[in-house]
Amino acid sequence: MKRFFTICAVVLFMNSLLIKAAKQITASIVSGGITYNLYISIPDDYNASKKYPLVVALTGCTGANANPYRDGLRPISDSLKMIVVCPNPKTNDQNFDDKKFGLITASIDTAKAMYNIDTISVYLTGFSCNGPVALYHGLNKLYPYKGIFPWEPYIRYGYDKRTDLKSDMPITIAEGTSDESYVQVLSLYDSLKNNGAKVNLILVPGITHRFDFASFGNVMVQSIRYLNDTNTISIESSEASLPLIKMMDTDAAKELVFKVKNKGNKELLFSALSSYTAIIANPTLEYSATDSTIKLTIAPMVGKSGQVIIVLEAREKGGLAIEQITFKVIVSKFVSVESTYASASEIKLYPNPAKDKLYLKSNEQNLKVQILDISGRIVLSNTITGSDPIDISSLKNGIYFLQAKGKMVYPIEKLIKE
Q: What is the dihedral of CA 101, 103, 106, 112, to 10 degrees?
């Protein structure tokens, strides 16, 4: 018998967590000869004879007190039995950059002195401008963390140049789909995946750059669970084209079939999200318990184009196992039935990566060129003749897609601006 699940915009999976009374205290830490407050949250049933994992949480750079951030992370102490410490700089500049890295390790040392900490289970998270700090500190292994899980990192183009994108440090990036850094974060996730990093992605629909929403703590609990996955669930695709699928905006809905293996034999919950619902709506999902298969249906929006990341997730109900598979869908606009489509070998884009000037080599003298950002928005449109260069100096560093049309329509090419 089949059980069917339709996924809508709200994806946060968490089982209802009972709100307990995690103990919260304020301590002092010293770094660089300066004394700071350290806001701490510990499980309500803390037992000094047991070892506890530790989470160091870096609040955003708004100048606000770190106390509300600790409050938002309370479910980590309540449901995962972890100790959370939030260092609080005194100045309005709360960026834990190179000059303040010592405050991170001082927070860990203080926690060790106060509590029975499991020293091989130390995690790092950060919000806003301290999300990139968590990424840099963790991926570059400035401390032997068990994993890092930034929330809505405020990524500036080019930041990844100083970060080890090939690091084997486990990482979960959680991001609100309405966040101001959404495009840059997806670009960074793409770079990490391309470099073989152990990275998972959590999308929170409709959330802007904030942490003061009801399910924030549960999102962070979900992030940690990815870092501690028991590997009893696997998702495999029967599609040879994964992880990249190309579609036209006028194409009919496409069905994809995935096989789920569940060694734990516990009941599973499923969800599926589109990174850009304006281009592809959140997929519908059907699960058959008979043959353990998922049928995912994706449908492009007419008149829209761009790149979309689809996140398919399976997790144990009431358990710790969790697994995801992500793949890209590139949607192109349909031109006309009279158009002739060229092969990738009939056009050359160079240099790539490019800095200021970009060139196209084809058999046509006149080409209309459009460059789109990762969200599908046209950021540059130009008509070139012969070997004329394309001036891309006004574009920010990052990943783009180039569509060229003349007498023929050429395949979309990936462009890196640096």
A: -100
Note whether 162 and 136 are within 8 A (CB): yes
pLDDT single digits (tens) 156-212: 755 657 788 899 999 999 999 999 889 889 988 988 998 999 999 999 999 999 999
**pTM assigned to the model:** 0.77
404-413: b (≥16 Cβ within 10 Å) or e = bbbebbbbbb
Same fold, 23-227 and 234-332: no
**Torsion sign over Cα 84, 90, 92, 98:** negative
Distances (CA, A) of 104 to 55, 61, 96, 108: 11, 15, 8, 7
Cα atoms found within 13 Å of the Cα of residue 194, Cβ hemisphere only: 10
Q: Of the candidates 314, 327, 122, 139, which has an alpha carbon nearest to the alpha carbon of residue 231?
A: 314
| Strand positions, DSSP E, 263-292 | 268-274, 284-288
Domain 234-332 sits in CATH at 2.60.40.10
| Per-domain boundaries in the chain | 23-227, 234-332, 340-417
- Report CA-CA distances (Å) from 187 to 94, 120, 244, 347: 25, 31, 15, 25
In three state form, how does the secondary structure of 296-327 look?
Answer: EEECECCCCCEEEEEEEEEEECCCCCEEEEEE
Whole-angstrom distance, CA of residue 243 vs CA of residue 235: 13
Asked whether the beta carbons of 61 and 128 are under 8 A apart, the reply is yes
User: Between the CA of residue 44 and those of 31, 41, 47, 113, 384, what are the distances in Å?
Assistant: 29, 9, 9, 19, 67
The DSSP symbol for 280 reads B
Q: How many CA atoms lie within 13 A of 27 on its CB side?
A: 21
What the block records as the tokens of 116 is: 């029975």
- For the structural domain made of 340-417, what CATH number should be given? 2.60.40.3080
Predicted pLDDT of residue 341: 66
28: which strand partners? 37
CATH class of 23-227: alpha beta
Strands 390-391 and 357-362: antiparallel
